């Protein structure tokens, strides 16, 4: 019943957001393949967003069939000479082709043209992300949050090192830190290695040493994930700094100085966790565990939609049901010219690529686990959360997804674009294509790997939703 309720709640905002993300990212990926194929005179038979039967379809003047299909988990471009959407060669058809047909068939194009057509899809994804980041940075600026530590997780490397809430991170292993968003990338690079962390505390500098380790933390969307971390967060402690008269919090008996420790027996560390829970449980009652003057107590609240909701966390304070948070660090919006915005977009795209590769390496090496991996179900849930923040946030998520999908497609797994490029690499070295048996075996293995990954991440998504 809960799953059905969540699905009904997801549809109005989550469905259009998910379809927007998939359509934009897949369309530009396939458009990359399509455009370069057309440039080299390759006949394109089908351009599909989604798989399965078509919802709508039409044929252009070049006799390419365009369609939007019912299964929104990807898409494909099918070239003349291909046997299927995976771009395996239709050997029977190829043998019967006339000289005129061979001139426009994909399998008969020169090696460099085939490689360029295949690589164009992932690189179109990178270009899309760079364009989105450039435009958003240029028109809206870039938020720079000072590297002030808000939370220190219990039993973490940060706590063991003596790091405290309110400390300002100035450098890590000699690398200057200016933005809180710089910290995750620097920390994740050092899995299992000691970090020399320079802090500013009460106006004086000090250096502590800590080794990041695998732990459960709350990500920016409020989900619990396991990752390599120091155990610090930019959220402020879950302390009530003020109670607005006549509010839900006031009527429930909350007082200034109350420390929120749990909601429905689930531990709470940061005020943002409290805010995220309330935002996701409107009109529902819950038990709020507090510590007041060192003594535990419990109050019951209803997340009434009639009460003022959660303020933008970039403001100095958040107001949740009339309970006001401690001050958040002041966020500065830095504005860029077009050239600087483009440079910043390149840097942001590279950080996503590097972060994705580091995460995969950490999972393979055992430094992290798979809780950070999302499949279609997980992406659908994320789409709803991000869409609730506004279209600009959804557009930036599309850019992030575009980079990730482009990168994953370059992995040397047969069936993906990177697998085709791997085959072309062998062809360049050997002076001839790999044998049919070797290619068929590779595609079968690639199909098994891709299907296995899809099943695994979907299972991961369902487990995250507590559906079994």
Walk me through this protein's architecture:
Helix 9 (338-365) packs across helix 11 (391-409). Helix content is 44%, strand content 22%. It has 13 helices and 19 strands. It has helices at 2-39, 91-95, 99-104, 111-140, 157-161, 182-188, 248-252, 271-280, 338-365, 376-387, 391-409, 417-430, 436-464, and strands at 44-59, 65-79, 142-144, 151-152, 168-172, 175-176, 195-201, 204-210, 213-218, 224-229, 232-233, 242-243, 259-263, 266-267, 285-292, 295-302, 319-320, 323-324, 332-334. A four-stranded antiparallel β-sheet has the order 6-5-7-8. It has a four-stranded antiparallel β-sheet with strand order 14-13-15-16. Among the domains are: 2-40 and 109-140 and 399-464, no CATH class; 142-234 and 329-334, Pdz3 Domain (Roll), CATH 2.30.42.10; 242-324, Pdz3 Domain. A hairpin with a 2-residue loop joins strand 13 (259-263) and strand 14 (266-267). The chain is an alpha+beta fold and 468 residues long. The chain is elongated and about 85 Å long.
- Give the DSSP E fraction (strand runs of 2 or more residues): 15-25%
Question: Low-confidence segments, ≥5 residues, pLDDT <50?
Answer: 306-314
Helix content: 40-55%
Q: Which whole number gives the mean pLDDT?
A: 85
Q: Which class do the helix and strand fractions yield?
A: alpha+beta
Q: Report the total helices.
A: 13
Annotation, overall tally of beta strands: 19
Largest sheet: number of strands, sense, barrel closure? 4 strands, antiparallel
Head-to-tail CA distance between termini: 13 Å
* Gyration radius, in Å: 26 Å
User: Numbering strands along the chain, what is their spatial order in the largest sheet?
Assistant: 6-5-7-8
Q: What is the global morphology?
A: elongated
């Amino acid at each position: 019943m809960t799953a059905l309720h969540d699905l009904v709640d997801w549809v109005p905002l989550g469905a259009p957001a998910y379809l927007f993300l998939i359509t934009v990212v897949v369309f530009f990926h396939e458009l990359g393949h399509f455009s370069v194929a057309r440039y080299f005179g390759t006949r394109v038979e089908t351009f599909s967003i989604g798989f399965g039967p078509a919802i709508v379809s039409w044929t252009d003047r070049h006799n390419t069939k365009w369609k939007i299909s019912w299964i929104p988990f990807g898409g494909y471009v099918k070239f003349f000479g291909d046997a299927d959407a995976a771009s395996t060669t239709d050997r029977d058809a190829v043998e019967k082709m006339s000289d005129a047909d061979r001139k426009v068939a994909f399998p008969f194009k020169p090696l460099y043209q085939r490689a360029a057509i295949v690589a164009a899809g992932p690189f179109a994804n990178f270009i899309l992300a760079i364009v989105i980041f450039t435009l958003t940075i240029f028109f809206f600026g870039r938020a720079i949050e000072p590297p002030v530590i808000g939370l220190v997780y219990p039993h973490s490397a940060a706590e063991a090192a003596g790091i405290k809430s309110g400390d300002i991170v100035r450098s890590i292993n000699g690398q200057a830190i200016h933005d809180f968003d710089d910290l995750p990338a620097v920390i994740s690079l050092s899995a299992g290695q000691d970090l020399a962390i320079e802090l500013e505390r009460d106006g004086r500098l000090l250096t502590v040493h800590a080794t990041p380790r695998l732990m459960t933390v709350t990500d920016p969307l409020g989900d619990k994930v396991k990752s390599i971390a120091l155990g610090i967060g930019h959220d402020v402690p879950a302390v009530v700094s003020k109670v607005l008269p006549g509010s839900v919090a006031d009527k429930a008996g909350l007082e200034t100085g109350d420390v929120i420790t749990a909601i429905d027996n689930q531990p709470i560390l940061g005020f943002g966790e409290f805010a995220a829970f309330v935002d996701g449980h409107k009109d529902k009652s819950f038990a709020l565990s507090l510590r007041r003057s060192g003594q535990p107590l419990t109050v019951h609240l209803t997340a009434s939609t009639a009460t003022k909701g959660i303020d933008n966390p970039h403001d100095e304070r958040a107001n949740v049901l009339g309970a006001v948070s401690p001050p958040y660090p002041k966020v500065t919006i830095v504005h860029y010219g077009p050239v600087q915005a483009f440079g910043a977009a390149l840097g942001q795209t590279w950080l996503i690529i590097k972060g994705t590769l580091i995460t995969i390496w950490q999972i393979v090496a055992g430094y992290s686990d798979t809780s950070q991996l999302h499949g279609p179900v997980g992406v659908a849930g994320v789409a709803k959360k991000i869409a609730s923040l506004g279209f600009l946030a959804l557009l930036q998520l599309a850019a992030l997804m575009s980079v990730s999908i482009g990168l994953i497609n370059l992995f040397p797994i047969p069936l993906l674009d990177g697998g085709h490029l791997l085959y072309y690499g062998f062809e360049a070295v050997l002076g001839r294509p790999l044998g049919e048996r070797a290619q068929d075996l590779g595609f079968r293995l690639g199909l098994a790997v891709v299907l296995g990954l899809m099943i695994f991440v979907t299972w991961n998504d369902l487990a995250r939703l507590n559906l079994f």
